[in-house]
Amino acid sequence: MQKTAPGIFVLLWSTGFIGSKLGAPYIEPFAFLTVRFALVLPVLALIAVASGAHWPRGGRAWGHAILAGAMIHGVYLGAIFYAIDNGMPAGVTALVLGLQPLMTALIAGPMLGEAIARRHWAGLALGAAGLALVVLPKLGAAASGMTPANTLICLVAVAGISLGTVYQKKHAGTTDLVSGTVVQYFGALAIVAPLSLAESWHITWSGELVFAMAWLVLVLSVGAILLLMVLIRAGSAARVASLFYLVPVATTVESYFLFGETLVPAQIAGMALVVGALLMIRERRVGTRRMPA
User: Fold this and answer.
1) Of the candidates 70, 54, 45, 58, the residue with the CA atom closest to the CA atom of residue 175
2) Residue of 104, 191, 226, 284 with fewest CB within 10 Å of its CB?
3) How confident is the model at residue 291 (pLDDT cuts 50, 70, 90)?
4) pLDDT at 92 (0 to 100)
5) Cα–Cα distance between 46 and 109 in angstroms, integer?
6) Boundaries of domain holding 27
C-alpha cells in the first residue's frame, strides 16, 4: 500500500477537475462547496464512529485541525472554484497551482526544519518546466480570462494548500486521521458557507450534478483526502507536495479519453519531464535537520 498510495492519490485527486466540470453549470461555486462539505461531514463522522476513532482532545487540538482544514479545503478549493467560475481558464489555473510544490518546499524549511537537497530543487524546477509544456498548449484563445484578480485568487489557492499541508504536518500530524479530517471540514465550512450567502443558491438538480456531487463527496473529500493525510504523516511535506505536479498530467490524459481532447507532442514531452522529475525527487530522500529556534 505504501508504494501504491501516491499513484492512487494522484489518480483520485485528478478526477476532481472532471467532477467540478460536470457540476459547475448547475450550481454556483461556494454553494457547490458548501453542499459538498455538509454532505461529507456525516459520512466521515459515521466512519469515525464505526472505526472507533479517537477524537482530538482539548481546544488546542480542535483548533489546529480546524485551521488546517480551513486552508487545505476551504481556501484552496474556494479560490479555485471562484476563479474558474469568473472565467479563469482551467489550464491556466492548473499552471498557477503547479507552483504548490515549490511554495511548500520553501515553507517547509523554516517551519518543519526540512533540508531540501539540491537534487530535490532540480527536480522541482524540472517538474515545473514539464507542467508548463503540458498546460500551455491548452490555453489558446481562452487565455482572455487571465485577469490580475483571477491570477491573484489562484495564488491564494496555492498559498492555502501549501500552508495547510505544512501546518497539518507540524501541528496535527498525530491526530487520528478520520476524526481529524471530520474536524477539518468544519474549518472548510467556516470559509465557504459565509461566502455562499452572497450567491443566489439556485440549483438545478440534474443527473450530471448528482453524479458529480456524489463523486466529489465520496471519492475526493473522503477517499483522496484521507489518503493525502496518510501521505503527509508518512513523508516530508515537500515530497508529498511534489505529487501535485502529476495531477494536471493525469487530468489531461483523462480529458483525452473522456472528452476527446487532443494531445500534442509538446504535452507528451512535458509529461515525460514531470515523471522524470518525480523519479529524481524520490530517488534520494529529503533530509531533515533541526532549525534554530
Assistant:
1) 54
2) 284
3) very low
4) 63
5) 37
6) 5-288
